[in-house]
Amino acid sequence: MQMSTTQTVHHPMFARLWVAMSSHETELITRLRRENLDGLTGRVLEIGAGAGNNFAYYPDTVEQVVAIEPEEHLFEHGQRAAAAAPVPVSVTEKTGEALANDPAGEEPFDAVVCSLVLCTVNDPDLVVSQALSHLKPGGELRYLEHVASAGALGRVQRAADATVWPRLFGNCHTHRDTESVIEAAGFEVQSRRRLWTLPRWAPLPVSEFAIGRAVRPA
């Protein structure tokens, strides 16, 4: 879901494809979503909520989820998913970059969640820095993202990013070093691991995922 400094974006063909794909996620992706949200408490900001696939898995220790999703079709699906969520969820149609216009104010968040979104934003450095600014000191960033690989797959990713992949898949860039962006913004990564979500004989550019927990220093 591409994000820009504007409030909304439009990728109707990809959005419909994403909804279809999201409704048939693998058991592994579902487990990773649950793991990424496990143990969260208080108020949570979710950046790039997509069709709202995370909403069903928030633990009941979460008091409120404020989710943003700038793509119109996905925003509508997210609203429906929010209505069925086990915790209070509100969905706003805006981009991650647009958070720069929303100061953290008097109510910073206990956690920020990014799931399969930092590959699509126009300015990942800005979005991650805004995530940091909207957190309480000691607050968490939970991330689940496909990331840049090394070796032959990395070369495939770079070629994909330079050609048709971003245009076909909602501005998705497969060779982003997302964890370096998170650390450069000022987060302290407390835990992380990488795993393959597709067989190694099927080296699609989005095969390798990173899941981790980072905190804003107190």
From TrEMBL:
Keywords: Methyltransferase, Transferase. Gene3D superfamilies: Vaccinia Virus protein VP39. GO terms for biological process: methylation. GO terms for molecular function: methyltransferase activity. Pfam families: Methyltransf_23 (PF13489). This is SAM-dependent methyltransferase. It comes from Mycolicibacterium insubricum.
